[in-house]
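quick one, two chains, predict together pls
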Amino acid sequence: MKAPRSPWHLARVCNRLALQGFGGILAVARHEFVEREQWLDDDEFLELLGTAQVLPGPNVINLALMLGERHFGWRGIVAVLAGMLLVPGVLSLALMGVVLAHVHHPAVQGALRGMGLVAAGLLLGTCWKLIAPLRRSAIGPAWAFGLALAALALSAVWRWPLGWVVLGVGGVGMALAWRRLAP
Amino acid sequence: MSGLDFLHLSAQFALLSLLSVGGVSAILADTQRLLVVERGWLSDAGFAQGVALGQAMPGPNILVVAVLGWMAAGPLGLLACLGGVMLPSTLLVWRFSAWARRNRHSRGLRAFQLGAAPLVLGLTLAGCVVLARPYLTEGLWLGFALLAVVAVGSAWRPKVPPLVWLALGAGLGALGWV
């Protein structure tokens, strides 16, 4: 196994992988960390990903943060954040500036409408990936889908603040899971 | 908008950060509630445009929050939203990743993960509703059709980059069809 040479090296690799990631950044991260740089093997990658998924925050950034922290401490954290967010962020804002400068044009407005609908469609598509694990969830599919519907209604229809939805729906889900996981 | 407003906003996003299990999709509905419903800094259509533009660029999806923050209130809005949403989860990973790694098979963490899964699905669906609502109230059936085709298509062929779908939507929209 190799290791990043410096925080700067780590930041450059994070920047490279972020710029390749149009949505599916996880596959790119695996390719860069495991195959190209050989900082992790497959098992270590999966282990870090498992931990990244139980912690709040974006999964791939969490994974890279753990990697950075392991090698360089807080300097690794800064390197990962800068590499992941700086250049892609500036690009996003530049695109936004160009598009919004022409927003008075009917074709641009139409294009933005179409892209907004696609954004909603893409989000709905990702739900498919979330449904499969729920069908074999330890808390039982009826409870799992019931709780999902409750979260949908509370958040989208009744507009409860997220904190309350999480405490209510998440609390019930976690209590059920805790009981079902009893040793 | 005073400095206090921005501090309040970043505190609200900091709370979202701790709830963003799995990333940005679960907190989109609440981001809309904070920026559009509660403050009126963005319109419904502006919010959907910001999300679409954020998704059209390379990089982590969390940058959607940066684009929305800038559209709502300029550079300070960006700092408040992105800083708020990144800081707590980063600190948590920094201080607790070693602990989480040792205990990731523990009953508590597994219950947390299992119990949060239905919540994440429900909140992601709520994000779809919030995004699509301003368009669909106009009742254009082609808009419905585009949304459905993208949802089924992207789930069926996950290898197709989202940019392809966004380009399709931009093209159809520019022609005035949806």
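Chain A has a mean pLDDT of 90.
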